[in-house]
Structure to design on (208 residues):
């Protein structure tokens, strides 16, 4: 009598797991796509926010979106160009920006930076830099810091993002201009004092 052959068990099928979402790279890809469409539109613009700081050499510490400065008078042309390129555009509760999205990443088109209208002077100071291989206008370091200092309030006073920017770009910022513009305000002045104590910038004489 034949002995039944034992069944050979097949190894369990390997479960395929998707790689974790690389949020940093996703924001960079969105930034490059938007910049390409804006360049093709011919309208002036400049990259802002944490991605702009990254373009200047600050370690990547991106927020939840990518920011672009555009003039309010160019809003219709800019949004039309982005929609034609596949960017979903929607309004925002604030009257100083328009929002967009691409592949789950958020885009802010900003008309006012810390309460001040985006204009030709600001955009003309932008520097053309590569952002993950795509060249685009990027807000100048002093303008980046200026906008962040102007945005400080008692309800939002986080120096965590400002300090790496100040350390990395200190030789490329006009600290005299920044101090003249913001030194009278308590929160920016506290940040200047912190930078002095850390040796990032030279100490200044203060009037009691």
């Amino acid at each position: 009598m034949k002995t039944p052959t034992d069944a050979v068990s097949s190894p369990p099928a390997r479960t395929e797991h998707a790689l974790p979402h690389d949020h940093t790279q996703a924001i960079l890809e969105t930034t490059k796509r938007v910049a390409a469409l804006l360049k093709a539109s011919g309208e002036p613009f400049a990259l802002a926010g944490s991605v702009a700081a990254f373009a200047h050499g600050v370690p990547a510490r991106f927020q939840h979106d990518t920011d672009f400065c555009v003039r309010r008078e160019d809003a219709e042309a800019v949004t039309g160009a982005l929609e034609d390129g596949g960017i979903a555009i929607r309004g925002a509760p604030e009257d100083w920006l328009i929002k967009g999205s691409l592949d789950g990443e958020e885009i802010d088109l900003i008309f006012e930076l810390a309460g001040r209208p985006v204009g030709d002077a600001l955009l003309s100071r932008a520097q053309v830099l590569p952002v993950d291989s795509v060249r685009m206008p990027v807000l100048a370091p002093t303008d980046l810091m200026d906008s962040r200092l102007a945005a400080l309030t008692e309800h939002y006073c986080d120096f965590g993002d400002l300090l790496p920017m100040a350390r990395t770009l200190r030789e490329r910022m006009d600290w005299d201009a920044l101090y003249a513009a913001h030194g009278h305000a308590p929160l920016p002045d506290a940040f200047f004092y912190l930078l002095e104590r850390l040796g990032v910038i030279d100490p200044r004489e203060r009037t009691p």
Strands lie at 45-48, 65-70, 88-90, 97-102, 105-110, 112-113, 116-117, 127-131, 134-138. The first strand starts at residue 45 and ends at 48. Residues 141-208 form one domain. The radius of gyration is 23 Å.
